[in-house]
Amino acid sequence: MHSLDPLATSTMISDTYRRYLRSLLPLREPQLAEALAHAIDTSPLLTKGPLLEATPAYAPGATLNELVAEGVLDPAFRQLTGPALPADRPLYRHQEQALRKAVAGRNLVVATGTGSGKTESFLLPVLNALAAEHARGTLGPGVRALLLYPMNALANDQMKRLRRLLADTPHLTFGRYTGDTKDDPQRAADTFEQLNPGEPRLPNELLSRREMRATPPHILLTNYAMLEYLLLRPQDMDLFEGDQAGSWRFVVVDEAHVYDGARGAELAMLLRRLKDRVGQGRQIQAIATSATVGAEENPAAATAFAQALFDVPFRWDASDPAAQDLVTATRVATPDGPHWGPLPTTEYLRLATTADPEPEIVSAARMHGLPAGTTAATALAAEAGTAALRRALADGPRPVHEIARDVFPGDPVGPAAVTALIQLASQVTDTDGAPVLSARYHLFARATEGAFTCLDPAGPHLDLARHETCARCVRPSFELGACRRCGAVHLHGTFTGQGAQARLAHRKSPDSPHTWLLLDGDGSDTGADEDDETLGDSAKGGLKERRLCTRCAAVHPAATASCTAPDCGGTELRRVHQLDTHEGTPAACLACGARGHGMIRLFEAGNEASAAVLSTALYQALPPATDGPAAALPGQGRKLLFFSDSRQAAAYFAPYLEDSYTRIQHRRLITQAVRQGCPDPDEPLHIDDLVAHTIRAADRAGVFRRNDSRQAKQREVALWVMQEVLSLDDRQSLEGLGLLRIDIDREPYWQPPAALTSLGLTDDEAWLLLQEILRTLRNQGALTMPEDVDAGDEAFAPRKGPIWVRSQGSEAKRRVISWLPSAASASNRRVDYLVRILDALGHQGERRAAALDVLNRLWTDLTTGHLADWLRSENQPGIGVVRRLDHAWLRLRPVTAADSGPLYACDRCRRITAVSVRGVCPTLRCTGRLEEFKPSPETDEHLRRLYLTFDPVPLRAQEHTAQWTGEKAAEIQGEFVRGQVNALSCSTTFELGVDVGELQAVVLRNMPPSTANYVQRAGRAGRRADSAALVLTYAQRRPHDLARFAEPERMIAGEVRAPIVPVDNVRIDRRHAHSIALAAFFRAMKDERGRIWRKAGEFFLPDDTTGEIAAHTVRDWLTPVPGGVMASLRRVLPEQVQQEIGVDSGDWVAELDRLLRAAQQILDQDVSSYSERRDQAAAARKYRQAEMYEKVIRNLTQRELLGVLANRNVLPKYGFPVDTVELRIPQEGGAVSGHLELTRDLSAAVHEYAPGAEIVAGGHLWASAGVYRLPDRELVSRHYAVCAACSRYREAPGPVDPVCAACGTQSAAAQRRYVEPVYGFVAARGPQRRPGQTPPRRSWYGDVHMSTDTADLQEGVTTFASGHTTPWSAGTRGEMVVVSEGPAGAGYQICDWCGWGRPHAQAAPLRGGHPHLLKDTQCTGPLRVVSLAHRYQTDFLQIHLDPLTALTATAARLRSGLYALLEGAAAHLEISRDDIDGTVHTGTDGMPSLLLFDTTPGGAGNAVSMGKRLEPVVCAALARVESCECGPESSCYACLRNFRNERFHELLTRYEAMALLNALTGDST
């Protein structure tokens, strides 16, 4: 495989992105089109980079032999050395330091970079201890070292390394105990052989659980979730108790930085429980490793984190190296010189392409005086150009062009020479295999905010940043949109004010209605095409002519001559037409009649579309494998790894990328086929011929599998071709882009119809005109299909057929369009085109009547005359005789400069066409003129260039998120490693050091929360030592992303903070208390009764013999609490938590019993429901269906017990350590449903899983149908109200007092009620569809409130530089309520009986009940309108405003300042913005304050950190809002806006934010 050229690839990607953006809005107004193109081409806001980051080699230390001789290592260690562990190869210096400290018995944090050998830092001390114990003759079975990994994949990687190291030491045993480990030894051996073909099994590797229980291995590898299970399950107690359990010595936590916040609290409690089991009376040595634990920035914080995590001492004394339990890396310094050379830049370029450059480098160095025996690595390191490059990179990542100016000043090929030198330095390695210089390139692209322009008569000033007022002429700035088909310019916003005060303003709030103004439309007609109306699903809209003042944005009636708005009086009015719609994306253009989803679009690229464009360009640039097995794989070995912070974003992007890529691939294959199959334009292709040629092109590209039949290929490709023939989207189709010409064949004796020649047209013009008229039928889908193609296939949406045409009389229900308009008021494209042709011919008289006459005569010729073969007649039942264009008469040929006639482009709508009759544009109602168009590579539109140059190599994309079961996720990972999957879209699952094979590039679909996350994700690329890697990051339209885009260097190499471990999280600690108790219960039941429960049905359903329900016996066993359990609880739980959950009183036992009984009822109800369906199906003799329900029952009852307990919040669930609920998907929902586990934090679930919401999982859409209810359990419900005057929140079990206690305002609004859906949600049954081109709409209408002021408080005061003081309060038990009020804030209708639900907004009346949520019947239960909510306690920070600010601050100022503070906190504290949130809280005194809180139930310590560091947080917030490119009177997604605060967008401005922040600091300026 060749290497990627990062510089050329970056340039290509940047050019592609700008070319794509230029294609988004085909503005038909020349000045605006030119201004937009100029802004895109010159804007610095769109891409940055590539930036080059270099990592010098790590400094060498002592060899293993030297450490043995010194006495650091035991002499027996020499037995472990060999090819896999050379005794004479120097360790890295940090490895040596770690080894010395660990051998001395110290607890240790190893904090070194990726690829630094952290594994050896902990593995060598473990192996040394084992070797020494073996030498003493005391090494028997039993765990000595536990290696804990956050992912199975990391443990698997470590096993490969241990096999190499311990191949010749059979006395040292090791084993991996994870969810993938088989119980049976033979099955485990078979699995090993399957996964490791040809690799012999080592006698000292224990493969099965049974083997490890019998003789526990010396080194045990597992993950934290499995360690939880090991501590719980009685069958695994021999690992921790008994004769072989007294030997535990080491606990190693790899990738320790992931244990931050709630996850850190989970692991800290787990390790305390482990220590309670195995560490009584002995010392357990703790070692943590991480590349991003903040050790360089704050070593004391890093060791404090480790101490909190392990609950053992870690020391850091900056003045005493002997008291430092922390090891960081030491890098090799740049050689001081003397340096030889430098080589000419042309020589770097040449050497980089040489297969083996090392001899030439040595030869050149010898010529410059270096001694004989000098290695290529030493020579290149001493070369002057290499040294200069190292110096240029010494201070961190820099743009390549900037580096080139320093290293090769004035050299035009400097950037290319830098890239070549990096390639050389990566290829040339020293004797240990380390490259002279490793490097990584970083390229950034960002989302567009929109296109905003004034309408200055002297010329528009267009900007890509949001401004409400033009920065150059102080006129109002409007947001631009355009029709995708005709380019008609639309202005988007919302009306403010009434009557003469009405103005078009930027739309900020989701509650504000959308207003669309068609700029300079003539308004003579709505422009609707009757064909579109017949086949479309959107209602006909209307236009109202208005006048828009370009000086003040006031909108007036049509007859207005001058602006009547106060203080304006301007006469610069533009004619506009207001659309009769309030849709966010109008589905119809009333200028040209085009219809379809998002026909009018804004200049918003969209996260998925932009990422797909960038990723496709990168994937195409990846070099293929030219030989070996990889060359035969889909994509020829190309692989890309994608990261998203959101699992939903990752899940949606996989099918989106594959679908969008495949559409381009199909069109490219058709382009190749038509060009290769039709070398002579006079012999065009029949559709069947094109299908055959396309199959051959697809075979050459490797699209089909070898075992695909010819018939299967025929069906598939025929569908592609017919999609293209219909040409539904002129802006994207091959025909619409001037690459394919589709004509109707004609007999040699053909004569032009008299109806056309009588108009004065030539024979050729008549032929072209007739073709264009018949094309309107083809574009509407009134076309016959080849035998293998179904006209009703989803691929033809929205023109699913069959569709017919008849002379007159359309019929929407039967999909019949009318050749002639059905009414005098109607029109269609045929009439419109002929009218404009007649106008161009100078026709005298009423042109519409003449056009109708021509069409009528043509219909006669086409149905009865010599043209009748083209329109095939069919007699359809209930319709009569109708016709379709016969596809067999169509002929296709390529459009090439050499062999085809000229192409034409409209000077108004810019449509490209191969047909010009008197220069009339065929676009509906377009007044533009066709001019000859000569495409060139420089002017080619984005898609046109793709269809001409794209390599149609296959791409298979898959999701890899926590929504998959572990088994399915491992299967997908394996397919990606092997190259069977080309694009893996993951959330954070592969962020750590997982082996994903050789990757030359990765794509980050958003800016990660912190530098630590970025470093980890970027580190997945560049696993090939001989190649520099490329990291491509897309900054989404949100403040964090766009702020980091402004300073990409900070993202790459910014400050990394130490993780936080809040061990007193009550919600988390309670579950660990349950785990202690259940572990003891399970052990006792095994010892006393011989009972072990493995499956959910065994534990929760009545025993077949005794009828006893095991889950109900737990409380009895815990009454009273056994002494051993009580002692463990007191040793493990923090004292404050013990008091909170009632350890002494036993209250915690009642809560455990409640949760177990709720879980039992859920399973019992599910089994009863499916049993009823099974019995009904059997009674109706639907045996296959009955068998399916029986399988569902088995699936429910055979689920792993511990997994069910974790999902029901009884036990810790480490993947999502908060209050989780499940979206229960129907098990009969297809093969994929059995591989999915959809769980979510309840705070997010009340939005994302709410009735009517859709999510993507496993490549399918799943819609929530309601709230899961238990038959004898009522959901917790409370009344609540928010004061309209002071915004104070209040709630109560019953009706809330209508008088606000804070301000005394009497509320006139109806009170609302919420329920807590603590048992989860249920997805709708029925077939699941694949996600479309638009992501599922998320509904986040609601807010977060503090429901109590009684939390324990810590008071503080921050003194700013001005001397001004701001008081604050911080607490750890703030009672928060997340309220989801549904679309438009109208709530949800939820059935009191079955839980079925839907959004209340615009809900249609129901007759005869509604579908039962769990059964195949109707339910007549009452529907109640409620909100959904989640109550939880968390850490909070309350910032108190001075009295003057509190009394005078508007809602806009308070909200703007609040969201600025949150962005500043996220940036300064290096935490994810999703981990914190805020609200404006009104206290009992009626005074507002700013409330910032952790979104993690129980808290994660972030809020308290914000209080302690309030001054730098405020400074970071000010820096964010002061530097944003949007206008101060507004806000944008780069400063204050995000999805969750959408309802407040109309309030948010940078000016108000700065005013509040300055009030906090006391800055009066």
Automatic annotation (TrEMBL):
Keywords, alphabetical: ATP-binding, Helicase, Hydrolase, Nucleotide-binding
SUPFAM superfamilies noted in UniProt: P-loop containing nucleoside triphosphate hydrolases
Domain annotation Helicase ATP-binding: ranges: 99-311
One Pfam family cited in the UniProt record for this chain: Helicase_C
GO MF annotation list: helicase activity
Location of the region described as Disordered in the Swiss-Prot/TrEMBL record: 176-203, 520-539
Organism domain of life: Bacteria
Domain Helicase C-terminal, residue spans: 907-1067
SMART domains: DEXDc, HELICc
PANTHER family the record matches: ATP-DEPENDENT HELICASE HRQ1
Protein name per its UniProtKB record: DEAD/DEAH box helicase
The organism of origin for this protein: Streptomyces wedmorensis
